[in-house]
Amino acid sequence: MGYDSEHDVLRLAAEGFNCSQIVLRLGLELAGEDRPELVRIAHGLGHGIGHCGEICGALLGGVCLLSWHGGRGAAGELAHPMLDAMVADLTGWFRESACAGFCGIRCADILEDAGGRPHPERCAGLTAAAYEKAVEILQQYEIDPTMPPESAHA
Fold first, then answer.
1. Is 154 inside any structural domain?
2. What do you get for the CA distance between the two ends of the chain, in Å?
3. How many domains is the chain built from?
4. How far apart are CA 33 and CA 51, in angstroms?
5. DSSP symbol at 30
6. Which residues of 19-28 are buried (b: 16+ CB within 10 A; e: fewer)?
7. Residue 152 domain flag
8. For 76-120, what is each residue's pLDDT tens digit?
9. Contact predicate 117/126, CB 8 Å
10. How far is C-alpha 46 from the geometric centre of its chain's CA atoms?
11. For 65, which of 27, 44, 85, 106 could close a Cys bridge (C-beta 3.0–4.6 Å)?
12. What is the DSSP letter of 55?
C-alpha cells in the first residue's frame, strides 16, 4: 500500500475517528477521495455498533469499503457480481485470522479482557489489518482500490 497503515490508523484515531470510519477513510484516501458524508455514515458502526459491543467496527468499516467499490448506489446500477463473495472473504478472514485469539468477532469478545473499552494497540492492529485485507480482496477481484468507483465502473 506504500505506507504504514497502522501509523495512519493511529493518526486518524488521534483526530477522533473510530475504527469503522478509519477503514473507510483510508480507502477513500487511497482512491484520492474526500467524502465526509461517507465517513459520517460509518460513525455509528464504530466500537461494536455505537459502543454496544456488537460486530467489530473494523470489520464493518472493511465491509463499507468493499461496498463503496462494488455495491449498488442508484437505480440502474448493478452491484459487482462478486460483492457478497468479497464480504464473505473479509468476514471469514477476520474470524479465522485477525480474531483467532479471541472468542468471536464482536467488540465485546475482542475487548473482554480490557473491560470492553477500546484497547489502543489491539484496535489499531485490527483496524489496519482489516483495511489492508479489504484492499487485498478488492485487488483479488480485479477492482482497482486506487480509483473511485465511478471511474472504475465507467
1. no
2. 24
3. 1
4. 28
5. H
6. bbbbbbbbbb
7. no
8. 999 999 999 999 999 999 999 999 989 999 999 998 876 666 777
9. no
10. 10
11. 27
12. B
